[in-house]
Write a structure and sequence with these properties.
single chain, 302 residues, mainly alpha, Cytochrome Bc1 Complex, Chain D, domain 2, 12 helices, flat, binds heme C
Length: 302
Amino acid sequence: MKNTAIHDRHAHEALSRVRSLGQIFTATIVLIFLLVLAGGTNGQDEGQKLFESRCYSCHNIGGGDKQGPDLKGVTDRQSQEWLAEFIRGPQAMSRKDPVAAELFKKYAPTIMPDQALSDQELQAVIALIKDLSARNENFVPAGAKLAREIVPGDVDAGRLLFLGGTELANGGAACNSCHSVKGVGSLGGGTLGPDLTAVNIKYRDPELILALQNPNFPTMKSLFENRKLTDEEIVQLFAFFQNSKLNNPTADVVPTAAAAKIEPKFLMLGFAVAIVAVAGLNFMWRKRNRGVRQELVRRTKI
Ligand code: HEC
Ligand code: HEC
């Protein structure tokens, strides 16, 4: 009787030790994860803000040439040093570097003004260009916003625009002739373009707004470049897509190259966490086994 009581207490103590170990272990992992996340977004934020305020008026990353060349992939063509020197003093560079001189000829009469960036700022901008190029993603200004707030009635107005019940003001073809959205329109939509049921899941809000303002996809671009959607139409279509996400929260996202967004960094982190977790569990099990073994030994002695 007494033995079992002692045994119970031992087992109980061992168990709670294992439990609190487990808690500390979980807390540590969560902390590491948050730190990595925070670190990752800070640098990116700086690059994003800088690029938007200082470069975006003349450059896209992945969206085509503007006043200046598209910077996608420039980090593969040029060294870090070349980029730093060019960005800080493009004109000085054009006098001594034949590649820079060619660029100046090609983009005349626009001249890129010298950019007085600190080392850290320069790193952040270059890292952003490199990162987006590697992931085959376009730069999206965080400032892409709707012209006004969504109000009741926008979803219905958006549905009508989508189906062609209301004509697009600048003469664009109804979305429904090439796209479908689950549960909308009795015959279903066209199939030339992807199903848009989950388009609001696939793209972040500013990305979708930007895609509506300035669709940079090959077919869409040729169609809508000279028949832009109006600000009003964009609000209504956006509201409609947002609503279709609410109605179909698990709709399949139509994959495209641009949608493959798993960052290698997080993948690696995932592996690391899994390995640590397995190691940790092993460790805990070993302790537990030893505890049981000691108990058995003790009991046989008694
Ligand atoms: C007023 C417009 C303008 C602004 C602002 C501007 N650029 Fe440029 N950029 C150009 C033009 C135009 C060229 C081509 C060379 C020339 O004619 O000056 C160029 C060329 C470049 C190149 C070389 C591209 C290549 O293909 O080799 C890089 C890199 C670059 N810019 C980075 C930046 C960065 C980074 C910023 C912001 C910090 C920036 N630019 C701001 C207009 C601009
Ligand atoms: C003539 C056919 C056609 C019409 C009309 C059309 N689209 Fe598209 N759309 C396409 C095609 C094709 C694609 C796939 C990318 C490409 O090739 O442009 C696409 C891609 C898209 C995408 C990106 C989807 C994704 O999964 O990445 C969005 C968003 C979009 N269209 C919205 C609209 C909206 C909103 C309208 C109506 C205002 C519209 N489209 C009208 C053909 C069309």
